[in-house]
Amino acid sequence: MPRSGQDYLESLRDGRAVWLDGELVKDVTEHPAFRNTARSVAALYDMACEPGRRDILTVRPEGADRSVLRAYHVPRTAAELVERRKAFKTWSEASFGFLGRSPDYMAAGTAGFVSAPDIFAGEGFDGRDNLAALYRRASEGSLYQAFTITNPQIDRTRAASEQEEDDLYVRVVKERDDGIVVRGAKMIGTGAVFGDEVVVGTIEPLPRQDVEYALTFSVPLDSPGLKFISRTSYEAHARSVFDNPLSSRFDENDALLVCDDVFVPWERVLTYRDVDTTFRMWWFTPAYNNFVHQAATRFWTKLEFLTGLAILLTRANNTYALPPVQMQLGRLMGWLNIAKSMVVAAETMYERVAGEGSAVHLNREIASAHRAMAGDLYPKVLAELKMLAGGGLIQLPASGYDLTHPELGPLVAKYVRSPGTPAEQRIKLLKLAWDALGSEFASRHEQYERFYHGAPHVYLPGILRDGDPDLLAAFTQSCLDGYRLEDLPGGGGTDALS
Ligand SMILES: Cc1cc2nc3c(=O)[nH]c(=O)nc-3n(C[C@H](O)[C@H](O)[C@H](O)COP(=O)(O)OP(=O)(O)OC[C@H]3O[C@@H](n4cnc5c(N)ncnc54)[C@H](O)[C@@H]3O)c2cc1C
């Protein structure tokens, strides 16, 4: 059985260096900027231990004496892919799709690495044994792995080694008998402050000259010299669960990772001074594709939640039955069904890593198209809901306390209501809607859906690579080849045109 939520929370009290507003946070499980979200993650672990959901969320691998989180399991049949999706779905429903980087995300990525371990046999460094050890450690310990695999923006026109200073991006500064010392920064550690380990690497291709920056390793959060500088906390600014129902509980945090001369033992290094392997481990194993399986399932859940929200809002406003509103709701429902169908289609048209009995993964073309679809669609979904909600989203009392105030309470009850929806119910609904659509938390989610899987100039050409452009060009060419100038009525030649 995986560890309990309580065991997970206790593991976070390890002296990790999390910084917020100039303060070194002593304990993320108690700090008002982090504690509720830590508890939401702990609740996921507890779900995996519950008799009713254990079979969905965990699996006992063949020959193993204990169960692991299903996200860590390597699927070898289409049915196992579907089982994994049911696990993703169950966890994503617990946060209504708002915890993007729940522990199953990187777990699925690590299962992707071990599905094609030979990729880790680099030219000068063989990371296969270290990968196997990471997989054992993480799956048997049900670890929450975060990852930072993007270099800070600084200057996107220059290679890592051409930046103004050498140590802006994580690089190796010292080699020792027992390991290496690394220095520099990476962005963005989503959920990292709640993690057990962080995988540090680079998903973008690096030029040959950046060999010092071409490495991947996984270290515990309390590694000396490792620092996380948190963005503003939405959880800390939430008044209450009633007033900020999502941001008060599902603020998964994003942090800049700084390695201030962090020692990494050799056994924690996965790729080393190798630009090819450092890149290929993400794209030539099913790791990235497995990320999409979790993310696309979560996106489907999020659209279920938002479509449900649109239905409740329009019912509360008594606009639900109006024909234009029915049209807008139909559009939302259609988008939700597209998101769902893409997951199911990508599973049905699964692919196999080369080799008999090997791992299966989502269909690459569909997974890759999903990344683009979701990033483009999400802002449209939000815009559609805002149009449906109208000014009620803004004309809300500052907090639920106004409802209980002796003088204000009756006024709010009288004026903030609609037929069949008393004030408390309406305010509760609209505050949930604002948190999902208009708050700072909501804006961060819009940016997340657009960028968590990379920038468009990277992933859109990837769709072209995953597809078969020659086949499509040949198909259209076959249309062109089906007629000739000579076939013009009255015969060919330019005379026929005059
Ligand atoms: C909320 C959130 C959470 C995230 N979580 C994580 C995480 O947990 N782990 C992690 O590793 N990363 C994470 N990321 C980072 C994410 O991986 C990056 O945002 C993503 O890779 C894009 O890189 P960038 O933001 O530096 O954008 P850039 O590469 O700087 O691109 C930004 C824009 O600049 C323009 N541009 C830049 N370069 C080019 C070019 N060569 N050609 C054309 N146009 C260009 C484009 O308009 C592009 O949209 C997260 C991001 C967000 C927003």
Automatic annotation (TrEMBL):
It holds the Pfam family HpaB. The keyword Flavoprotein applies. GO terms for molecular function: monooxygenase activity; oxidoreductase activity, acting on the CH-CH group of donors. Keywords: FAD, Flavoprotein, Monooxygenase, Oxidoreductase. It comes from the Bacteria. FAD binds at Q153, I154, D155, R156, T190. The keyword Acetylation does not apply. Residues 5-270 form the HpaB/PvcC/4-BUDH N-terminal domain. InterPro entries: Acyl-CoA_Oxase/DH_mid-dom_sf, AcylCo_DH-like_C, AcylCoA_DH/oxidase_NM_dom_sf, HpaB/PvcC/4-BUDH, HpaB/PvcC/4-BUDH_C, HpaB/PvcC/4-BUDH_N. Transmembrane segments: none annotated. Residues 281-468 form the HpaB/PvcC/4-BUDH C-terminal domain. SUPFAM superfamilies: Acyl-CoA dehydrogenase C-terminal domain-like (SSF47203), Acyl-CoA dehydrogenase NM domain-like (SSF56645). This is 4-hydroxyphenylacetate 3-hydroxylase N-terminal domain-containing protein. It comes from Streptomyces parvulus.
